[in-house]
Write a structure and sequence with these properties.
Length: 132
């Protein structure tokens, strides 16, 4: 029993401890907006992780043989969506930078807490590492 607990803790820390792109984005988002927005964005990540954990616990072993044939297309689809989000984010950031430099985007407001929650929930849901 103790060996299984220790193995589970090690696996959890191995996944949770490294600071990845999502964690870096959360820190940057919070620094650029507000603590409230950062908290809601982090709740979006936690919601997606919690849903995947619930799915894994409730039906992971039973669904594994059924999902095995479609795992490769799901991974590829997730990668395509993440790349599209990255390209969109890059283009939007460049446009905002140019607007700020020209002085035309000075009145733009920051994204709200609900939008941050949904965006981070979506990104985490589509993250292939989270799916695995």
């Amino acid at each position: 029993m103790i060996a299984a607990l220790v193995a589970g803790l090690q696996a959890g820390y191995g996944i949770a401890m490294p600071v990845g792109a999502v964690a870096a984005y959360l820190v940057a988002l919070t620094a650029q907006t507000s603590l409230r927005t950062g908290v809601f964005a982090a709740l979006g990540v936690a919601t997606a992780d919690g849903v995947y954990a619930l799915i894994a616990v409730c039906g992971g072993a039973a669904l594994a043989p059924v999902l095995r044939p479609v795992t490769l297309p799901l991974r590829r689809g997730s990668a395509v969506v993440l790349i599209a989000l990255a390209v969109h984010g890059t283009v939007a950031a460049v446009c905002r930078h140019r607007e700020r430099r020209d002085g035309t985007g000075a009145g733009r407001t920051a994204s709200g807490a609900a939008r941050a929650y949904l965006a981070m929930w979506g990104m985490t849901t589509m993250n292939p590492l989270t799916v695995v």
